[in-house]
Amino acid sequence: MEQRVAEPIATPEVQPTVWRTQSATILFVVMVVGLIVAPFFTYPLFLMQAMCFALFACAFNLLIGYVGLLSFGHALYFGWASYLSAYSAKAWGFTPELAILTGTATGAVLGLLAGSLAIRRQGIYFAMITLALAQMMFFFALQAKFTGGEDGIQAVPRGHLFGLIDLSKEMNMYIVVLVIFLAGFLFIYRIIHSPFGEVLKAIRENETRAISLGYKTDRYKLVAFVLSATLAGAAGGTKAIVLQLASLTDVNWPMSGEVVLMTLVGGLGTIFGPVLGSFIILVMQYKLAAVGEWVLVIQGVIFVACVLLFRRGIVGELANKLKIRL
Amino acid sequence: MKKTLGLAALAAVLACSTAYAQQVNVKIGVLSDMSSLYADIGGPGSVAAAKLAVADFQKTNPNVKVELISGDHQNKPDVGSQVANQWFDVDKVDVIVDVPNSGVALAVSEIARAKNKLFIVSGAAASTLTGAKCNPNTVHWTYDTWMLANGTGKAMVKTGGDTWFFLTADYAFGHALEADTTGVVEKNGGKVVGKVRVPLNTNDFSSFLLQAQSSKAKVIGLANAGGDTINSIKQSAEFGIVKGGQKLAGLLVFSSDVNALGLPTAQGLSLTETWYWDMNDANRAWTKRWNAERNAAGKYPTMIHAGVYSGILHYLKARAALGAGEFDGKAVTDKMKSMPTDDVLFGKGTIRPDGRKIHPAYLFEVKAPSESKHPGDFYTLKATIPADEAFRPLKEGGCPMVSG
Q1: Mean of per-residue pLDDT scores for chain A
Q2: pLDDT number for residue B355
Q3: Euclidean distance between the first and the last CA atom of chain B, given in angstroms as a whole number
Q4: What DSSP designation does A150 have?
Q5: Fewer CB within 10 Å, N or C, chain A?
Q6: How many domains, chain A?
Q7: What SS3 state is found at B164?
Q8: What whole-number distance in Å separates Cα of residue A184 and Cα of residue B120?
Q9: Which burial class, exposed, middle or buried, applies to B6 when counting CB atoms under 10 A from its CB (0-12, 13-18, 19+)?
Q10: CB-based contact (8 Å) between A298 and chain B?
Q11: Mean pLDDT of B339-361
């Protein structure tokens, strides 16, 4: 995949009507209300998992959509965070908030290590280095004792938040996940719209020019990489507590591919795109569970259709049609 | 007059419906791998087996209404766990059956315990399901890793294969299988002369097979699974290992694998199973019905399919014995354990307190193409391991429910 994919959404002359300038805020409110009402209509566990994946996809999008770096090894941070989070909750008796923080820190540390190596190269080499490191750590997870190999870590206790709130009650857990997801989402929104985010976008557009303007682009890229890995870690850690298990699926390379698909379907470089994309992909996985092997075929067809028909993704195309920024 | 007749009819209907309030409603979920590497050993074949079990049971118990649903866990523990949760909570499923893939099975077992439902394992091999991770809501039906290692190891040594060389897949599962089998071989007076650790998903086994060949061990144990097993068996045939006088022992091979490999490649392979379709008339008759239900020519049921049938049948018997009322997973499991099992496929058997179903196991050797008389005629029976020796002794499993 070339950097061309990460084309910015052209924002032509915008008529300054309220709903155009405030479109992102409006959509955000709609999303929050939707997520608050949803558990009364849909199975909450499914929504919680979808939010974890949405946060994961948003974190991935921060890197590819706004810095133009295609990491093909994001499962590394997601999966290892879920292992460490699950292990700390089960073996060391950490409370859920500490376990999730452990997972987040795992993502950050691994992101720093992998990122400082990977950002030295560009394009396909960058992607290959991230993939190679992720595969290395996959085999480590397969062999290590504490990960339980292909059995994974099961029966992770959800515990009590701050020692007080019982998370085994579905609604309590739901609120915690919702808060984590929204916090992560707003954090990413803040990053993108900060001066730091502007520099990232400048690097995406033309790295040489950013260097000539005096920016140390490697540092910016590394910080963005670590931020993305950290948020992916938060998503993985939360998922381990929600589903009460951590398994090889989360560190294996198809997971790295799945997050690319989620982001692409929703809309690369749009803030809402990855959220929509991950919900679509997850709904497909569960609703189509009965049709067996066709899940993968349908996923493939959607991927091809996306690339051929709407390269900006669903949210990206929508934003372009309505000439707004989402 | 008409009115009274109508009323009488209504009363009669009402009376009938109160009589039928005793009707027991059961919902069974078959959770399996429908599309990927375990689809042949479980998958759609398990659904067909479940349908046969329900049909057979309803012949004698028409008052038990059974609904059957199935799903694909895609070999992902989180998908399996999501489906299991939803089945138990939303779809009112009482029991989940099959679940090949130990990772998914351990997750489902935990959910069944937490929600006080029931889980009948046929497809997964992990012996921890009735060992350290046992629980009062899980019954492990067909086979497990300990039984495979024990069956093959013991029977091979007793029939003369007393020196072993292991080809071991280099991860936890392979190591466990190798360690278990080594223990059995040495306990029965055999000797392990060497072993080699092979990376997972290897395509080229030649250097490992050469080591195995030059070790002069009488038996080469394949402590691997899935694609690795298939590849190592194929390449052993190319190296003429069996023709050279050494024996190949598959520690996790199913009749569907033998069917896929073909007899020319698989001949001479030793393996342990608890059920084989061509063993007696009852099995053959059942296979005919299974084939009609499964609607796939050239396929033969595996022991996992037989286990699904047998497990569901026993569950339904227990359920009917308990009568209508709120579903209580623990009570149903206790009932299942207290009743002796009896069906056409596995014969008489029992379920131990740790959830382990007990029945005999058989050591088979794959026939040469010239010995095979009809399609699906795969095996020669080499030894029968009696029920009381086939599975891990109750005390050695480390199941907290048993040791108290």
Answers
A1: 88
A2: 94
A3: 70
A4: G
A5: N
A6: 1
A7: strand
A8: 40
A9: exposed
A10: no
A11: 94
Sheet holding B163-169, edge to edge: B191-198, B163-169, B219-223, B247-250, B269-273, B361-366, B379-385
Q: What is the mean pLDDT of residues B347-358?
A: 94
pLDDT of residue A290: 64
Distance from C-alpha of B304 to C-alpha of B301, rounded to nearest angstrom: 8
**CA-CA distance, B50 to B28, in Å (whole number)?**
9
Of the listed ranges A127-136, B85-94, B196-205, B349-358, the one predicted with least confidence = B196-205
The predicted model scores a pTM of 0.85
Does the beta-carbon distance from B81 to A245 stay under 8 Å? yes
Backbone angles phi, psi at A11, to 5 degrees: -110, 90
What are the structure tokens assigned to A20, written together? 């155009």
Cβ atoms B48, B290 nearer than 8 A: yes
Candidates B381, B385, B307, B382; CA nearest to B351 is B307
Q: How far apart are the first and last CA of chain A?
A: 23
Residue among B39, B77, B128 whose CB faces A249 most closely = B77
Find chain B residues with C-beta within 8 A of A143's C-beta.
Answer: 170-172
Tell me which DSSP letter residue A54 carries: H
Rounded distance between C-alpha atoms, residue A221 and residue A112, angstroms: 11
Domains of chain B by start residue, with CATH: 25-143+280-359 (3.40.50.2300), 146-273+361-390 (3.40.50.2300)
Q: Is A163 helix (H, G, I), strand (E, B) or coil?
A: coil
Interface residue A249 vs chain B (CB under 8 A): yes
* Spatial separation of the C-alpha atoms in residues B147 and B193, rounded to whole Å: 23
CB contact under 8 Å between A249 and B71, yes or no, is no
Say yes or no: ipTM exceeds 0.95: no
Query: Cα(B379)–Cα(B381) distance, rounded to whole angstroms?
Result: 6
